[in-house]
Amino acid sequence: MIKKVTIIGSGVMGRGIAQSFAVGGFPVKVNDIKETFLEAAEKSIDQNLALLVHSGELRDDEKRDAKGRIAYTADLKDAIRNADLIIEAIPEVLEMKWALYKDLEQYKKPGAVVSSNTSTFPISKLTEQTAFNGDFLITHFFNPAHLVPLVEIVKQDETKQEIVDDVVGLLKRIGKSPVVLKKEVNGFIANRLQTALMREAFSLVGQGVADAEDIDTAITAGPGFRWAFVGPTRIADLGGLDTWKRVFDNIAPDLDKSDGAPEIINRLVQANKLGVKTGEGLFKYGKHEIQTVINQRDDYFVKLGRIKKVNEF
User: Fold this and answer.
1) Catalytic residue positions?
2) DSSP string covering 235-285
3) Site described as Important for catalytic activity, positions (predicted)?
4) What is the pLDDT along the chain (313 residues), one digit of tens a residue?
């Protein structure tokens, strides 16, 4: 039974995962290598909890309780000593992950489950240098992790089935929607689907078919409007597979087939126009506009999440 959780890495993903468990009623320890990183994480979580109160998702006492469940420490031994589940959410550098796993082998309690939030590495690569493969899996959360329900779980042959079942049950208890992959595949499920769509979206912008804002509207007011409740395979059944066969046969030959980043992204990255982190990407952001955009996004996600809780298809 998983009762205590530790998150290693207090960046955007780590802090969001920690908040999810704390709001879900579980004591959480957050570990990072610098106190300043932990202070930034605590400040961010406080702000996110305040937004949930403002939106009506949490009461003041629930916010206080959630905040009280989170402890911050730069001492790795202290962080993992009593943890039943240790979630690694450090940067996507394989050698860093391997080094951390060596420390976990030494300090974690017997039987503690270790998972990685990686979106980059296959589980077979992560476990090449670990000795706890039976207690290891991938739990890939989506940003913002405290709001998006999906968690992709990747196991391997050595992973104990009871571990998978325990983690799935735990995630459901904190309001997540876990899916378990049946085999290892690069990019897992959601990022493969998302990348296919993004490739075509950027291709259309690059060809001058439409500007970025209209591309976004075409998704959020069209397919994306449906996807929140009805996925692509169900949509195909509802529309008729004979109809979708014709759609594929007619459109697939014209779709973008590039095997790398779209040219428009390459140009923007080369010009250091990286999006909100630099104030300009496909859109321009004023000095005080960025936080407003993020808060508005999160408010939309909160409202959508509230609807989905009682209206799943």
Assistant:
1) 119, 140, 152, 191
2) HHHHH-HHHHHHHHHHHGGGS---SS--HHHHHHHHTT--BTTTTBSSSB-
3) 140
4) 899 999 999 999 999 999 999 999 999 999 999 999 999 999 999 999 999 999 999 999 999 999 999 999 999 999 999 999 999 999 999 999 999 999 999 999 999 999 999 998 999 999 999 888 899 999 999 999 999 999 999 999 999 999 999 999 999 999 999 999 999 999 999 999 999 999 999 999 999 999 999 999 999 999 999 999 999 999 999 999 999 999 999 999 999 999 999 999 999 999 999 999 999 999 999 988 999 999 999 999 999 999 987 666 4
pTM of the model: 0.93
Token pair listed for 182: 């049946």
What the block records as the tokens of 59 is 């009461």
Known binding residues are 9-14, 32, 92, 97, 119, 143, 277
Token pair belonging to 309 = 């809780």
Which helix (H) or strand (E) segment is 50 a member of? helix 35-54
